[in-house]
Amino acid sequence: MRGVSVEPVPSASTRFRRVADNLGSTMAESDSGDLSRVVATVRERIDPDAAERAALRDAVDELTARVEAELADRSLEADVLQVGSTARGTWLSGDRDIDLFVRFPESVDRDSLERYGLAVGNAVLPDGHEEYAEHPYVTGRFDGFDVDLVPCFDVEDGASLRSAVDRTPHHNDYLRARLDDEFAADVRVFKRFLKGIGAYGSDLRTRGFSGYLTELLVLEHGGFEELLRAAADWHPPVELDPEDHGTRSFDDPLVVVDPTDPTRNVAAVCSAENVARLQHYARELLSDPREAVFFGSDPDSLSEEGVRGHVRRRGTHPIAVVFDTPDVVDDQLYPQLYKSIAGVESELARRGFAPIRSATFAADRAVLLVELSHRTLPNVERHDGPPVHVRPHAEGFYDAYAAGDDYGPFLDGGRYAVEREREFTDAAALLESETLFQVGLGTNVERKLREDYSLLVGDDVAELADEFGVELARYFDPRP
Amino acid sequence: MRGVSVEPVPSASTRFRRVADNLGSTMAESDSGDLSRVVATVRERIDPDAAERAALRDAVDELTARVEAELADRSLEADVLQVGSTARGTWLSGDRDIDLFVRFPESVDRDSLERYGLAVGNAVLPDGHEEYAEHPYVTGRFDGFDVDLVPCFDVEDGASLRSAVDRTPHHNDYLRARLDDEFAADVRVFKRFLKGIGAYGSDLRTRGFSGYLTELLVLEHGGFEELLRAAADWHPPVELDPEDHGTRSFDDPLVVVDPTDPTRNVAAVCSAENVARLQHYARELLSDPREAVFFGSDPDSLSEEGVRGHVRRRGTHPIAVVFDTPDVVDDQLYPQLYKSIAGVESELARRGFAPIRSATFAADRAVLLVELSHRTLPNVERHDGPPVHVRPHAEGFYDAYAAGDDYGPFLDGGRYAVEREREFTDAAALLESETLFQVGLGTNVERKLREDYSLLVGDDVAELADEFGVELARYFDPRP
Q: Which GO molecular function annotations are given, in alphabetical order (chains A, B) (predicted)?
């Protein structure tokens, strides 16, 4: 279910892809002739050739005919639309996704739509299987392509949709009317660029740029290079509204008002860090155009000895909570992991262990990793009281502590202060206690932790290299 | 030169006197009958009896006659005034200070005033010696009293003074016109109270309440108990202006505009902590009146083993800079020690060693003591860079670090960050380096440290118990 699995925490921590030859560049912009040559080279690798296009067209024609036949057999009033990147010429060579939507009139009730949709899908793709997003659809292989057959309603516009997928045909219409071959080529280049830097995808693991967003951004700026130059100078929040019809405000670093729905931000899922990543690499590419940026690759897996070497060199105190990965889809898993690691990190910070960085990984096992400045702390911790002049509050504080065996209360300037016994002097003890469950874990993460988990402390985290060597290599070389 | 010598840092840290039976009291006010009985008992111990008064009067009369004779011998136009607490009946039994001012006309030039003043003083107190405050005077013993003979100018009012002591006769006139026997008795009680809690004295070591301030506060509130009740409810900044003639504003926690000088705050030297100390003990005394508050005593000296026990129990990392005490008067020494320990503490805080508390002591040796949460730190320290969108600044940051061998720069949310090598991973190494001299030490402290100093680290600070056992006892039991 899961493939690659570094998941440094977005925003509170690290989320990065390392590009091989990316160091030591200066950022003065070079001339665009260099960039054009690099783009031309990239295009040679990603533009689908005539044979690929023909094969795709044939498959789509055949599938469309089959769906229409099935609809006719059942006397169903519905039409068939090809949508997605393969419908708009914006797919990258080698991508094999065909999306066909079966569009029913709004008068059909939801149950019937689902039932008819699945019946037609199963008939057309007899070896396929049913999937459930917001509502069910059929997915399967056909002539070497991955095909999704999705039923939807024929709604007036994006704002009046009855299910989340009803927007898609409107997006498709909007883009097909505007994307000529040259724009489509620039979209492919931009997609490849975003993939290369690790910012492509609106899934909740990546929190990056969706395909639709990518296309709108290229259109809005008039091409790939123009978009790069604009992005290099963005001052988030950046607000774009291609149809100039937005009706609300958004609290996101990047806002692109959906041309088919004035109330929706197409970039809502895109994190501040991915916006910054785009800006960083836009500048990199403009100042020193090179193909490698488009084809960032995983670093070499770090060995156990390599992890130990970094821990020694850094002089820090890593600590990892390790547990069986909950069996939920990535769009549920990763938000929970991010929430959990943020909760663990901030609790450890609040308790004085001074986290330096944190990350979360998942494969068979899931990991919440925090690197601390201190594993242990003094037995006493200072607790500031109220100013002495706030009489009832000050007297309450003084009386509360005067009878105990804390150090104090004493006067510090105009306030009371006390040095109390610290609840946790060892971060490991904290993570072994019930306090772990009070930091705001995700539901499924909490459930798995309740079943069982283990702690790895100090350079024992090197044990993780076996399963997460690539992720640890990125963690210990976090350059973008 | 120096006697007792705890000097916890004012405001940034601790300054406290421990009162023997002061714990576990509740703070609801008790009836004032109890307080009156306690005050009556205190008065039995501090009111000068008839014999003491008579002896004082005789000594003053004899001294005054001698000074007048010396003035006449020299044909000097000047008068003699008795000033200070013994002139106003506000001294505590056993205090033996006589202050006589020799007041010259304003027409005398400063050199002549100093010359005549010293000549007369030396003639009257042939066994005395010359002291130099703002200008010179003679001090000596007479009939068992400590006598100061001080020349001053006869100025119009406090605001037009030619030397700092010219105010004193005006203060004296103002108070003598207002302090009857009953007020004088209350002033004595208030002084004894301030001495008991360690807040009496406007010297720069104590930064507490001067005698003149004490008298003005009792007058202004109409008595000791009334003053206590008012102080218990103060909300600093507290501003009093007995003559309602103040012409400027002050940035002090307690402001008492001098009745003889509308531009002067009599309480300028009084620290926020001593104002808070007065408030704390006013409430204590009102809620649970007892004599002990008036006669706070030093705690038992802490042994080396006792110090080690506290360090172990606290789990902290104390570190002390030890050096020969500079040979300057306390009013120069203590401000320099306070400044130095504040500088050391804030530098260690800035460097990540998380000080818990600090103190400075002085006897033959002087000590700058800081108690740290961590003696050592990781080799890396996080350094946050600018938001990526602030292009020139962000590019400068990235380029500055990209070529180095730091961890990063990397993206953290919308910003760059880097993990740099920490300059000092050991607090002892920092205090052994030139950095110690860059924290804003006092001049004489810096000079002595340049000559030589040693560091005591961890429970080696126990070695200090021999010279500073009482101070360390207070440090480790900081309750007020």
A: ATP binding; CCA tRNA nucleotidyltransferase activity; CCACCA tRNA nucleotidyltransferase activity; magnesium ion binding; tRNA binding
pLDDT, one tens digit per residue, over A346-387 is 999 999 999 999 999 999 999 999 999 999 999 999 999 999
Record: contact A16-B410, CB cut-off 8 A: yes
Distance CA A454, CA A437 (A): 14
The enclosing domain of B266 has a CATH number of 1.10.1410.30
Q: What are residue A439's phi and psi, to 5 degrees? A: -100, 0
- pLDDT tens, B67-86? 999 999 998 899 999 999 99
For residues A276 and A391, state if they share a domain: no
Are residues B82 and B100 in contact, defined by beta-carbon separation less than 8 angstroms? yes
B296–chain A Cβ distance below 8 A for any pair: no
Answer yes or no: do A56 and A102 share one domain.
Answer: yes
Q: Which of B276, B398, B413 sits opposite A11 (nearest CB)?
A: B413
How do residues B155-173 score in pLDDT, each as one tens digit? 887 667 788 788 888 898 8
pLDDT(B20) > 70: no
Q: What's the whole-number mean pLDDT along residues A204-227? A: 96
Q: Which of B267, B295, B323 is the last residue before a domain boundary?
A: B295
Nearest to A292 by CA among A29, A41, A94, A26: A41
Are A208 and A134 members of one domain? Answer: no
Q: Which of A175, A207, A236 is the last residue of a domain?
A: A175
Structural domains in chain A (count)? 4
Res B155: pLDDT: 87
Which H or E run contains A130? strand A129-132
* Binding site residue list of A: 85, 88, 97, 99, 148, 171, 191, 200
Tokens, residue B169:
């006769």
Check CB contact of B27 with chain A, cutoff 8 Å. yes
CATH number for the domain that contains residue A396: 3.30.70
